[in-house]
Structures are given as structure tokens and as C-alpha cells.
Amino acid sequence: SCRIAVLISGSGSNLQALIDQLPGDHCQLVAVLSNRAEALGLQRAAEAGIATRVLDHREFASREDYDQALVAAIDAFQVDLVVLAGFMRILTPAFVRHYHGRLLNIHPSLLPLYKGLHTHRRALQAGDREHGASVHFVSEELDGGPVILQARVAVLADDDEQRLAQRVLQQEHSIYPLAVRWFAEGRLRINNLGRACLDGEPIPPGGI
Ligand code: GAR
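# glycinamide ribonucleotide complex -> structure
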């Protein structure tokens, strides 16, 4: 069974979706790590009986030092997969390389659109009629790794940032558990060309 660590910084609603939806026979959530001690997701983890660790980035001299400590904390759990679920820190190339092919992220936009922050605001400002979320393998380029799965959400005439974000988040809660399950079942990988593959078939650039 696939041993999984989840990294969070905040509410952890995606973590909750994983707790609720991952099939126990293939997936074992063995650790939740946060850079913020106040993250609500730590309580969700504790309630589900999952080990938690807090590594406060403010206690480290550099990004490299922090990520090195993070790798050590994660690897102590001997995981097969690292899942970023609202972990709001940019990771160093060394961290990303260490988990090459076994590091997933969810980003609240239809990548390659709106990498970085304030994705919902930017989609509204651009007048987009469609917005959404993407699950992708993490590469050294910020929010630039191969996309696995996307969910599309219609932008409504009277949307504001909060309402749109809420509907996108709801979709995140379906696509992230699905992609993680695929990985745990051994169906998902990065091939030697850096493409994401499902059941050996390259996934198109826009995801499934
Ligand atoms: C989610 O919308 C996730 O896509 C986003 O943060 C939120 C976390 O919510 N992630 C990023 O913006 C990563 N750059 P959650 O803590 O309730 O899962």
C-alpha cells in the first residue's frame, strides 16, 4: 500500500477530502506536515489519527536549510508519495529533485493559466468565462510541472472572488483524491521525457 505524506499550510479541506475519499487498501496517509502551527488541517489530521509535524520556516536561516529539514522530516516516515495540499511555500530545486516523480500539487487555476497567487481574482479580472483547478506533478518550474487532471468551473455573471474560489475548491475535492488514487494504484508516473502518463499513455498537456 502507498505511504503518503501531505503538506499543508492552512485549512486543509483538500487534506480532509483525501482522508474521506482515499481507499484504505491502497493508500495510507502516514503524516501531515505544516509550516504553520495554527493550520486547521493539523486538527483534521489529529482527528483522523494521522501523525503531524510542524516545521516553522521562520526558525531556519535559509530556504535551503528549511527544505533540507523538511526532507528529513518527511523521509522519516518512509513515504512513496508527497502531496502538496495548500502548502504555500516555494520549494527549492533540491527538494523537488529529491521527490522527482512522486510529488503532486493542486493549483487553483486551469494551468498553464495563472501560476502563482490570487488565481481567482486574476481569472475574474481577465473576464474569463471558465476557471478551475489542476493536479500536476511538481517540477522545478513554479506551478509548471506536467498536468494530470483538471476540473473546469463556469464563471457566473455575479461571481466574486470568494464564491468562485468556493466552487473551484469543491471541484478540487473530487480531482485530488482521484489523482492520488491513480498514483497509489501504480497507474500514474512521469516518463523519461518528463510527460505524465496514465496506464502508460501520455496525458495531453491540458490534463485529463
Ligand atoms: C486550495 O485552493 C489549493 O488549490 C490552493 O490553496 C487552497 C488550499 O485549501 N493552493 C495553492 O494556491 C498553491 N499555490 P485547503 O487548505 O482547504 O486544502
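# post-check
The chain has six helices and ten strands.
Strands lie at 2-8, 27-34, 51-54, 81-84, 103-107, 130-137, 147-154, 188-190, 196-198, 201-202.
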